[in-house]
Protein backbone atom coordinates (compact mmCIF):
# COMPACT_ATOMS: atom_id res chain seq x y z
CA UNK A 1 0.00 0.00 0.00
CA UNK A 2 1.29 3.45 -0.93
CA UNK A 3 2.38 6.01 1.62
CA UNK A 4 0.21 9.12 1.42
CA UNK A 5 0.19 12.43 3.26
CA UNK A 6 -3.47 13.14 2.57
CA UNK A 7 -6.50 11.41 1.09
CA UNK A 8 -8.35 14.64 0.37
CA UNK A 9 -9.76 14.55 -3.15
CA UNK A 10 -9.13 10.82 -3.51
CA UNK A 11 -12.55 9.31 -2.97
CA UNK A 12 -12.32 7.05 -6.01
CA UNK A 13 -8.85 5.88 -4.97
CA UNK A 14 -10.23 4.99 -1.55
CA UNK A 15 -12.72 2.61 -3.14
CA UNK A 16 -9.90 0.46 -4.51
CA UNK A 17 -8.10 0.58 -1.16
CA UNK A 18 -11.15 -0.74 0.68
CA UNK A 19 -13.14 -3.22 -1.44
CA UNK A 20 -12.14 -6.61 -2.87
CA UNK A 21 -9.96 -6.31 -5.96
CA UNK A 22 -11.80 -5.37 -9.18
CA UNK A 23 -15.18 -5.91 -7.56
CA UNK A 24 -16.66 -2.40 -7.77
CA UNK A 25 -19.54 -2.05 -10.23
CA UNK A 26 -20.23 1.64 -10.53
CA UNK A 27 -23.78 2.78 -11.21
CA UNK A 28 -25.57 -0.41 -10.19
CA UNK A 29 -27.28 -0.98 -6.84
CA UNK A 30 -29.72 -3.86 -6.65
CA UNK A 31 -32.20 -3.54 -9.51
CA UNK A 32 -31.45 0.15 -10.07
CA UNK A 33 -29.02 1.44 -12.66
CA UNK A 34 -27.64 4.97 -12.60
CA UNK A 35 -27.00 5.45 -16.31
CA UNK A 36 -26.96 9.25 -16.62
CA UNK A 37 -23.36 10.44 -16.13
CA UNK A 38 -24.53 14.07 -15.91
CA UNK A 39 -26.81 13.43 -12.93
CA UNK A 40 -25.05 14.12 -9.62
CA UNK A 41 -21.47 13.65 -10.87
CA UNK A 42 -20.10 14.54 -7.43
CA UNK A 43 -21.63 11.34 -6.03
CA UNK A 44 -20.25 7.92 -6.92
CA UNK A 45 -22.55 4.98 -6.15
CA UNK A 46 -22.38 1.28 -6.89
CA UNK A 47 -21.98 -2.25 -5.58
CA UNK A 48 -18.80 -4.06 -4.57
CA UNK A 49 -17.57 -7.05 -2.62
CA UNK A 50 -15.97 -6.48 0.77
CA UNK A 51 -14.51 -9.57 2.39
CA UNK A 52 -16.68 -11.58 0.01
CA UNK A 53 -20.03 -9.94 0.82
CA UNK A 54 -22.05 -7.47 -1.24
CA UNK A 55 -21.86 -3.86 -0.08
CA UNK A 56 -23.27 -0.62 -1.40
CA UNK A 57 -20.66 2.12 -1.90
CA UNK A 58 -21.66 5.79 -1.66
CA UNK A 59 -18.74 8.13 -2.24
CA UNK A 60 -18.34 11.90 -2.36
CA UNK A 61 -16.01 12.57 -5.28
CA UNK A 62 -14.02 15.78 -4.82
CA UNK A 63 -12.83 15.55 -8.42
CA UNK A 64 -16.38 15.66 -9.80
CA UNK A 65 -17.92 18.86 -11.15
CA UNK A 66 -21.61 19.47 -11.87
CA UNK A 67 -21.77 21.81 -14.86
CA UNK A 68 -25.46 22.56 -14.24
CA UNK A 69 -24.71 23.82 -10.72
CA UNK A 70 -21.35 25.66 -10.71
CA UNK A 71 -21.09 25.73 -6.91
CA UNK A 72 -21.04 21.92 -6.79
CA UNK A 73 -17.36 21.01 -6.99
CA UNK A 74 -14.49 19.78 -4.78
CA UNK A 75 -16.72 17.27 -3.00
CA UNK A 76 -19.61 19.61 -2.25
CA UNK A 77 -22.88 17.69 -2.04
CA UNK A 78 -25.50 19.47 -4.12
CA UNK A 79 -29.14 18.79 -4.85
CA UNK A 80 -28.60 16.11 -7.50
CA UNK A 81 -25.90 14.42 -5.42
CA UNK A 82 -28.23 14.25 -2.42
CA UNK A 83 -31.02 12.62 -4.43
CA UNK A 84 -28.60 10.23 -6.16
CA UNK A 85 -27.17 9.09 -2.82
CA UNK A 86 -30.68 8.66 -1.38
CA UNK A 87 -31.72 6.58 -4.39
CA UNK A 88 -28.74 4.29 -3.84
CA UNK A 89 -29.83 3.73 -0.24
CA UNK A 90 -33.43 2.98 -1.18
CA UNK A 91 -32.25 0.63 -3.92
CA UNK A 92 -30.27 -1.24 -1.25
CA UNK A 93 -33.35 -1.40 0.99
CA UNK A 94 -35.46 -2.75 -1.88
CA UNK A 95 -32.86 -5.32 -2.89
CA UNK A 96 -32.75 -6.81 0.62
CA UNK A 97 -36.35 -6.21 1.65
CA UNK A 98 -37.09 -9.91 2.08
CA UNK A 99 -33.84 -10.79 3.84
CA UNK A 100 -33.52 -11.15 7.62
CA UNK A 101 -31.60 -8.43 9.47
CA UNK A 102 -28.46 -10.53 9.73
CA UNK A 103 -28.25 -10.72 5.92
CA UNK A 104 -28.89 -7.07 5.05
CA UNK A 105 -26.07 -5.71 2.92
CA UNK A 106 -23.74 -3.15 4.51
CA UNK A 107 -23.49 0.39 3.21
CA UNK A 108 -20.03 1.98 3.15
CA UNK A 109 -19.89 5.76 2.91
CA UNK A 110 -16.60 7.34 1.86
CA UNK A 111 -16.65 10.90 3.13
CA UNK A 112 -14.66 13.83 1.79
CA UNK A 113 -16.90 16.88 1.59
CA UNK A 114 -16.52 20.56 2.51
CA UNK A 115 -20.27 21.12 2.73
CA UNK A 116 -23.49 21.51 0.75
CA UNK A 117 -23.96 23.46 -2.46
CA UNK A 118 -24.85 26.98 -1.26
CA UNK A 119 -26.04 28.31 -4.62
CA UNK A 120 -29.26 30.31 -4.96
CA UNK A 121 -30.62 27.99 -7.65
CA UNK A 122 -30.14 24.91 -5.46
CA UNK A 123 -31.79 26.64 -2.51
CA UNK A 124 -34.81 27.61 -4.62
CA UNK A 125 -35.18 24.15 -6.14
CA UNK A 126 -34.93 22.47 -2.74
CA UNK A 127 -31.40 21.35 -1.92
CA UNK A 128 -32.48 20.96 1.70
CA UNK A 129 -35.10 18.43 0.61
CA UNK A 130 -32.50 16.44 -1.34
CA UNK A 131 -30.01 16.23 1.50
CA UNK A 132 -32.83 15.64 3.98
CA UNK A 133 -34.07 12.76 1.81
CA UNK A 134 -30.60 11.21 1.90
CA UNK A 135 -30.35 11.58 5.66
CA UNK A 136 -33.79 9.99 6.10
CA UNK A 137 -32.88 7.14 3.75
CA UNK A 138 -29.78 6.28 5.78
CA UNK A 139 -31.75 6.38 9.04
CA UNK A 140 -34.34 4.02 7.56
CA UNK A 141 -31.63 1.66 6.33
CA UNK A 142 -29.89 1.63 9.72
CA UNK A 143 -33.16 0.92 11.55
CA UNK A 144 -33.93 -1.84 9.05
CA UNK A 145 -30.70 -3.61 10.06
CA UNK A 146 -28.28 -2.55 7.33
CA UNK A 147 -24.82 -1.99 8.84
CA UNK A 148 -23.68 1.49 7.78
CA UNK A 149 -20.04 2.51 8.17
CA UNK A 150 -18.87 6.02 7.28
CA UNK A 151 -15.17 6.32 6.49
CA UNK A 152 -13.91 9.91 6.67
CA UNK A 153 -10.85 10.28 4.44
CA UNK A 154 -10.63 14.06 4.13
CA UNK A 155 -13.21 16.68 5.09
CA UNK A 156 -16.50 16.08 6.87
CA UNK A 157 -18.05 19.48 7.32
CA UNK A 158 -21.41 21.10 7.98
CA UNK A 159 -24.71 19.90 6.51
CA UNK A 160 -23.01 17.63 4.01
CA UNK A 161 -21.62 15.51 6.84
CA UNK A 162 -25.03 15.64 8.50
CA UNK A 163 -26.52 13.75 5.56
CA UNK A 164 -23.42 11.86 4.38
CA UNK A 165 -22.08 10.33 7.57
CA UNK A 166 -23.83 11.21 10.81
CA UNK A 167 -26.68 8.73 10.29
CA UNK A 168 -24.20 5.85 9.96
CA UNK A 169 -24.15 3.05 12.50
CA UNK A 170 -20.44 3.71 13.11
CA UNK A 171 -18.09 6.45 11.92
CA UNK A 172 -14.38 5.92 11.30
CA UNK A 173 -11.80 8.53 10.37
CA UNK A 174 -8.23 8.72 9.21
CA UNK A 175 -6.36 10.52 11.97
CA UNK A 176 -5.13 14.11 11.94
CA UNK A 177 -1.80 13.19 10.35
CA UNK A 178 -3.70 13.05 7.04
CA UNK A 179 -5.06 16.57 7.49
CA UNK A 180 -8.53 15.20 8.13
CA UNK A 181 -11.10 17.80 9.19
CA UNK A 182 -14.39 17.22 10.99
CA UNK A 183 -16.47 20.11 12.24
CA UNK A 184 -19.87 21.79 12.05
CA UNK A 185 -18.72 24.96 10.34
CA UNK A 186 -15.59 27.12 9.95
CA UNK A 187 -14.70 29.39 12.83
CA UNK A 188 -15.22 32.41 10.58
CA UNK A 189 -18.86 31.43 10.12
CA UNK A 190 -19.33 30.69 13.81
CA UNK A 191 -17.89 34.11 14.60
CA UNK A 192 -20.45 35.85 12.41
CA UNK A 193 -23.37 33.86 13.83
CA UNK A 194 -22.67 34.02 17.56
CA UNK A 195 -21.01 37.46 17.46
CA UNK A 196 -17.75 36.33 19.04
CA UNK A 197 -14.42 37.58 17.74
CA UNK A 198 -12.35 35.11 15.76
CA UNK A 199 -9.38 35.34 18.13
CA UNK A 200 -11.51 34.12 21.06
CA UNK A 201 -12.86 31.21 19.02
CA UNK A 202 -9.38 30.25 17.83
CA UNK A 203 -8.23 30.10 21.44
CA UNK A 204 -11.25 27.98 22.40
CA UNK A 205 -10.62 25.64 19.48
CA UNK A 206 -7.23 24.62 20.89
CA UNK A 207 -8.85 22.53 23.59
CA UNK A 208 -12.62 22.61 23.28
CA UNK A 209 -13.89 19.76 21.07
CA UNK A 210 -17.02 21.72 20.13
CA UNK A 211 -14.99 24.34 18.25
CA UNK A 212 -11.95 22.33 17.12
CA UNK A 213 -11.77 20.75 13.66
CA UNK A 214 -9.53 17.70 14.06
CA UNK A 215 -10.89 14.15 14.21
CA UNK A 216 -9.33 13.69 17.65
CA UNK A 217 -11.71 16.30 19.05
CA UNK A 218 -14.72 14.72 17.37
CA UNK A 219 -13.53 11.40 18.79
CA UNK A 220 -13.68 12.92 22.28
CA UNK A 221 -17.28 13.95 21.59
CA UNK A 222 -18.11 10.35 20.67
CA UNK A 223 -18.70 11.31 17.05
CA UNK A 224 -16.01 8.97 15.74
CA UNK A 225 -15.87 5.39 16.93
CA UNK A 226 -12.28 4.81 15.76
CA UNK A 227 -9.36 6.77 14.35
CA UNK A 228 -7.16 5.03 11.80
CA UNK A 229 -3.48 5.84 11.39
CA UNK A 230 -2.68 4.14 8.05
CA UNK A 231 -4.57 3.93 4.76
CA UNK A 232 -4.13 0.16 4.76
CA UNK A 233 -6.00 0.12 8.05
CA UNK A 234 -9.24 1.34 6.48
CA UNK A 235 -10.31 -1.97 4.96
CA UNK A 236 -9.82 -4.22 8.04
CA UNK A 237 -11.36 -1.57 10.32
CA UNK A 238 -14.50 -1.33 8.17
CA UNK A 239 -14.81 -5.12 8.03
CA UNK A 240 -14.46 -5.34 11.81
CA UNK A 241 -17.01 -2.61 12.47
CA UNK A 242 -19.52 -4.29 10.16
CA UNK A 243 -19.14 -7.43 12.30
CA UNK A 244 -19.60 -5.40 15.49
CA UNK A 245 -22.70 -3.71 14.10
CA UNK A 246 -24.23 -7.04 13.06
CA UNK A 247 -23.55 -8.40 16.55
CA UNK A 248 -25.24 -5.39 18.16
CA UNK A 249 -28.28 -5.72 15.90
CA UNK A 250 -28.52 -9.45 16.60
CA UNK A 251 -28.38 -8.76 20.34
CA UNK A 252 -31.13 -6.17 20.11
CA UNK A 253 -28.72 -3.37 21.05
CA UNK A 254 -29.60 -1.10 18.14
CA UNK A 255 -29.71 1.91 20.48
CA UNK A 256 -25.93 1.70 20.83
CA UNK A 257 -25.59 2.45 17.12
CA UNK A 258 -26.01 5.71 15.26
CA UNK A 259 -26.40 9.22 16.68
CA UNK A 260 -27.92 8.18 20.00
CA UNK A 261 -25.16 5.69 20.72
CA UNK A 262 -22.48 8.24 19.86
CA UNK A 263 -23.98 10.63 22.40
CA UNK A 264 -23.47 8.02 25.13
CA UNK A 265 -19.97 7.30 23.83
CA UNK A 266 -19.10 10.97 24.16
CA UNK A 267 -20.08 10.88 27.84
CA UNK A 268 -17.88 7.83 28.39
CA UNK A 269 -14.93 9.67 26.87
CA UNK A 270 -15.57 12.80 28.99
CA UNK A 271 -16.21 14.86 25.89
CA UNK A 272 -19.94 15.37 26.45
CA UNK A 273 -20.33 15.34 30.21
CA UNK A 274 -23.26 17.78 30.36
CA UNK A 275 -25.47 15.90 27.88
CA UNK A 276 -26.59 13.05 30.20
CA UNK A 277 -27.32 15.54 32.99
CA UNK A 278 -29.55 17.58 30.68
CA UNK A 279 -31.34 14.46 29.47
CA UNK A 280 -31.96 13.31 33.05
CA UNK A 281 -33.32 16.75 34.00
CA UNK A 282 -35.62 16.82 30.98
CA UNK A 283 -36.91 13.33 31.80
CA UNK A 284 -37.60 14.36 35.38
CA UNK A 285 -39.46 17.50 34.34
CA UNK A 286 -41.47 15.58 31.76
CA UNK A 287 -42.39 12.86 34.26
CA UNK A 288 -43.62 15.53 36.69
CA UNK A 289 -46.22 16.85 34.21
CA UNK A 290 -46.81 13.84 31.93
CA UNK A 291 -49.96 12.70 33.77
CA UNK A 292 -51.50 16.13 33.29
CA UNK A 293 -51.04 16.20 29.52
CA UNK A 294 -51.12 12.48 28.70
CA UNK A 295 -53.08 10.74 31.46
CA UNK A 296 -52.69 7.00 31.71
CA UNK A 297 -55.76 4.81 31.16
Features:
297 residues, alpha/beta, eight-stranded mixed sheet, two-stranded antiparallel sheet, 11 helices, 10 strands
How many beta-strand elements?
A: 10
Helical fraction: 40-55%
Overall morphology: globular
Spans where pLDDT lies below 50 across 5 or more residues: none
C-alpha end-to-end distance = 64 Å
Share in β-strands: 15-25%
What value does the Rg take, in angstroms? Answer: 20 Å
Mean pLDDT: 90
Q: Could you give the order of the helices and strands? A: HEEEEEHEHHEHEEHHHEHHH
The largest sheet, given as strand count, sense and whether it forms a barrel, is: 8 strands, mixed
Structural class estimated from helices and strands: alpha/beta
Q: Count of helices?
A: 11
How is this structure best described in words?
By secondary structure, the protein is an alpha/beta fold. The protein is built from 11 helices and 10 strands. The protein has helices spanning 11-18, 79-95, 120-125, 127-143, 158-163, 187-194, 198-205, 215-220, 234-250, 258-268, 274-293; strands at 25-26, 28-29, 32-33, 43-50, 53-60, 107-113, 148-157, 170-174, 181-183, 226-228. The strands form 2 sheets. Strands 1, 4, 5, 6, 7, 8, 9 and 10 form an 8-stranded mixed β-sheet that branches. Strand 7, helix 5 (158-163) and strand 8 form a beta-alpha-beta unit. The longest helix has 20 residues, at 274-293. The model has no long low-confidence stretch (mean pLDDT 90).
